[in-house]
Write a structure and sequence with these properties.
The complex is a heterodimer.
Chain A (H helix, E strand, L loop, with lengths): L6 H33 L13 H28 L2 H32 L8 H22 L8 H11 L2 H11 L9 E2 L2 E2 L3 H46 L1
Antiparallel strand pairs in A: 1-2
Chain B lengths: L1 H6 L3 H26 L10 H6 L8 E7 L5 E2 L5 E7 L4 E7 L11 E8 L5 E9 L14 H11 L1
Parallel strand pairs in B: 4-6
Antiparallel strand pairs in B: 1-3, 1-5, 2-3, 3-4, 5-6
The chains are: A mainly alpha, B alpha+beta.
């Protein structure tokens, strides 16, 4: 792990890994969504509304995976003081928030024709909305407490770890409490989703994840470049002063 | 270094231990909160809860369960429907006037918002259809389970 903490080595790997993730992710997502939106069969009860699934489920997964990334990177930052970990946490926040918002929006659009309502305050929907607010809080906090090294700082890291409590709550909310949202369709080793829906769903999820990883890598590179530019400017100012 | 001498631990490991303790406390707090919320955070009551513990007639509650097969009928006025919501243990008759969601059918899940009348009939002001976790293509609906399985096996 120490090897990857070296920014120079990270940049060397990220240079080719970023476009690779983005390209493969885009191809997979495009293929899965094209099939899902135009060729997949209509659902027995929901009809064509079922197609929202192919965007909603990957977004929900990434909303939660995004915060898990923040929490994991924050832990590494706090314990091992790896500057790159703080940068990774900060880079994951905005894409995570975007996917969480996408999950809430598509879920709402799906809920109107399926349930007969845009929004209810049940356990799943409420905990997912809390996740979105946690993202906003994290982004604001990380920006406000940004240290000179570009890492997100200790306060944001602690917030990232504490906020991770919400992730298992989102996941289990439909099991612990009666909710309008249906229980999980895909559990360990079995699926209540017909293969005609399941395969494009899994491929879309994988594609979304690759795009997500590519965006995080690109953002990390951008933050590192920012730090470098800042340091160079500072040196220049010192030399002139 | 004072911290170093404290437990004979490297600062790195000391932070790890501290964070570990903090995480245990955090998880314990979260579990306590979830345990305290186990009733309040539920979105609806199931019929057996309503029957065992009827809410006051003026108190708005949500009732959720399955629409009993064969129980759905339309009243003579044409807009009021009556059906039975059951959870396998108890049954609650429900009356509702208005537009039902398209997924509202016998044998599927429903959440009714309204009040429980003194006669034991639940008067709903709003109906929400609850989708279950199964996703099945329309073409396979009419097939029996065995037929569907063979079709799935062929296409895989």
């Amino acid at each position: 792990m120490h090897g990857f903490a070296n920014p120079a080595r990270f940049l060397r790997i990220a240079r080719w890994l970023t476009p690779l993730c983005l390209a493969v992710g885009l191809v997979l997502t495009a293929a899965a969504l094209t099939y899902g939106l135009f060729f997949a069969p209509a659902d027995r009860l929901m009809g064509d509304t079922v197609r929202i699934l192919f965007i909603h489920v990957p977004s929900a997964w990434l909303g939660m995976a995004g915060w898990t990334t923040i929490a994991g990177a924050s832990l590494v930052e706090l314990v091992w003081r790896h500057p790159l970990a703080g940068i990774a946490a900060r880079a994951a926040a905005a894409p995570g928030a975007v996917f969480t918002a996408l999950c809430l929006a598509t879920g709402s659009i799906w809920g109107r024709p399926t349930w007969g309502t845009w929004w209810v305050w049940d356990g799943r929907l409420t905990s997912m909305l809390v996740l979105l607010f946690l993202y906003f809080g994290y982004i604001a906090l990380a920006d406000a407490t940004r240290g000179e090294g570009g890492s997100s700082g200790r306060v944001a890291a602690i917030f990232g770890i504490v906020g991770a409590v919400n992730v298992p709550i989102i996941n289990r909310s439909v099991v612990w409490w009666n909710s309008l949202h249906q229980p999980p369709s895909i559990t360990m080793g079995q699926s209540a989703i017909d293969p005609a829906f399941l395969w494009p769903l899994l491929i879309a999820t994988f594609g979304f994840t690759l795009i997500f990883a590519g965006v995080i890598l690109a953002r990390m590179r951008a933050i590192l470049a920012d730090i470098q530019a800042e340091a160079r400017l500072r040196r220049k100012a010192m030399a002139q002063g | 270094m004072a911290t170093h001498a404290a437990g004979g631990l490297k600062p790195k490991h000391q932070r790890l231990v501290l964070l570990g303790i903090a995480l245990v406390v955090l998880i314990a707090a979260a579990l306590l909160a979830i345990w305290a919320l186990r009733n309040q955070a539920s979105y609806f009551y199931v019929p057996s809860e309503i029957v065992a513990n009827p809410p006051a007639p003026d108190r708005g509650v949500r009732l959720g369960g399955m629409v009993e097969k064969g129980s759905l009928r339309t009243e003579s006025d044409g807009v009021t429907i009556a059906f039975v919501v059951q959870d396998g243990e108890a049954r609650v008759p429900v009356r509702f006037s208005g537009i039902v969601p398209s997924l509202f059918v016998e044998g599927s899940g429903v959440v009714a918002e309204g009040t429980l009348g003194t006669d034991g009939t639940f008067v709903a002001t709003n109906l929400l259809a609850k989708h279950d976790e199964n996703y099945v293509p329309r073409e396979m609906e009419a097939m029996t389970k065995a037929q569907a399985k063979s079709v799935v096996a062929e296409t895989q």
